[in-house]
Structure formats: structure tokens, C-alpha cells
Amino acid sequence: MALFGGLFSKEKKESLDKGLEKTKESFFTKLGKAVAGKSKVDDDVLDELEEVLITSDVGVDTTIKIIQRIEERVARDKYLGVEELDKILKEEIAGLLSENNVQDLKDFTLPDVKKPYVIMVVGVNGVGKTTTIGKLSAQYKNAGYNVVLGAADTFRAAAVDQIKLWGERVGVPVIAKGMNTDPSAVAFEAVEYGVKNNADVVIIDTAGRLHNKVNLMNELTKIKRVMQKFVPEAPHDVMLVLDGSTGQNAMIQAREFTKATEVTSMAITKLDGTAKGGVVIGISEEFKIPVKYIGVGEKVDDLQVFNKAEFVDSLFNK
Fold first, then answer.
1. 126 annotated to bind ligand
2. 65 pLDDT above the threshold of 80
3. What is the E.C. number (predicted)?
4. How far is 126 from 134, CA to CA, in rounded Å?
5. 271 among the known binding-site residues?
6. Is 123 within any annotated ligand binding site?
7. Residue 128, annotated as binding a ligand
8. In the predicted model, what is the mean pLDDT of the chain?
9. Predicted pLDDT at 206
10. Known binder of ligand: residue 129?
11. Ligand-binding site membership of 125 (annotated)
């Protein structure tokens, strides 16, 4: 039975299917080679499957858990044919992800908190951080919210300019002070503007790279502290943006950022251009931090809320 339960529109489901095409093609090609000439799921097939999952960027720890679950089924059911492997694999991945007790978003509705809801976005340069902010602001505006953007990645002129362009495109105000200005001052003004103008959500871009982890931690802590002068609970969400096309490097970045600051959500971008989409499974399972959004294409609507069941269904939808 399909896991697709109607939470997505037909268009979004098709976009998700299309965005995962390269991952699916690579995964099932490897899987087909692994079971070629075999009739039942035995130790040799499981060894091959382990290699398929690891080379598909699912991650070692998550792969081991998946293999253990399949081994338990093989032991329980005594005989499983390789023709059943797709179905078993789909069920066990979906089951593993559903057990992490992280609730998926249904849409772009903001949590019920005192406004403005403040999102601080972190991530290294080049992962699609600013584009994700722009698409997210468009989605929130389309949902009827008043949005303010803060261009606090002041180490790169391109980042400031890109945020401004997104603001013009979407039709939302952008607070910017230019390059080489104090990022915390930008964040302060953005939140201040949001409070005074009854904004529903304020999204703050931050520097993608500082000299070391201590500098990064200190800078993000300072930005948080100044925002709290206007909104004591800010930031409500620290969102880490990761580039899915980098595979295990995205996993490494997630580990580094979660050590440097409290990350409360993730967005994984560029899944449409890569065969490394399996990394979403590993990141979602390993960190137990909500993967809120995934990027599966160039259009604004291709930034989708991440739903574990929908994702696994699309991954196995041949």
C-alpha cells in the first residue's frame, strides 16, 4: 500500500517525485546489481545492500539500523525472496524514520506564538541559504503572513544583494546595512522593525563562514542576545541549511553546527540535481532535529515541507 496519504497536492507530489529521480535511478541501479542472480535475502544480499545504502549517502549508523531491522525480518519470516526486498526496505526505512518522534509540518503555517516569529538561518556559504530564505519568505507571504528579512550575512556583498533582490521579488521589506557592518546590529534593527510594524515573521540571514567554531558560536550568541531585547524568546527557530548534493559532507556540517550552536530545524536543498538524496534519511534519523523543508527544484514552490512518509514513498515510486 502506498504511503502517500493525500497530504500533498498532486502537483507537489509530482514535483517531489521528479526531484528525487536521480537518487532513485542511482539507488535502484545499485540495488538491481546487488541482487542479480539471487533468489532469496541471505547474508550475501544483506552485505551488498549495506554497501548500496552507504554509497547512497544514507550514512553508516542509519544503514546499520536498517540492515538490523531487515535481518530481524529475515529471521522471523525464514524465507524472503529478493523480489520482496524493495517493499521490505521501504517499510523498514519508513518505520525507522517514524520512530524518531519528530512531527512533520503539514504546511507553511507559523506556530502559535507571540509575533513576530523569529527565524535565524545558519549554514556555510554555497548551500543555498539565501535562496532558501527567499523561497521561504515567498511561501510565508503566500500563506498570508507579513514577512521581514534581515541581511545579517555582512561578510559577503553578494549575500546582502541577493537578500535585497529576493525582497524586491517577493515584495517584503529587507533590513540591510551593507557589507562589513555589525551583523548583530542588522538583526537588532530587523527585529525592531518587525515588532513596530506588526510583522508575523522575521527571517535573519547569518554569515556562512567565520574563522573557527568559537568565532561562529560567539557571533551567533551575540545576534541572539540583541534580538532578545525586543523579543525575549528570539530566535524561535535556528534553521540550518544543508546542501543535499554534497552527501556525507552535509552530515559533517550538521555535526559541526549542532556543536557550535543550538540548531532547532534543518532545510536540505538541491536534491533535484543529485543522486545523493539518501542523505536526507540519515540526517533525519541521526540528529532527531526536524528536517522542516527540502528543495526539489528551482521554483519557489519547490521548497516543500518535508514529510517522511511522502519522501520515502517518492523514493520507492518507480
1. yes
2. yes
3. 3.6.5.4
4. 15
5. yes
6. yes
7. yes
8. 90
9. 93
10. yes
11. yes
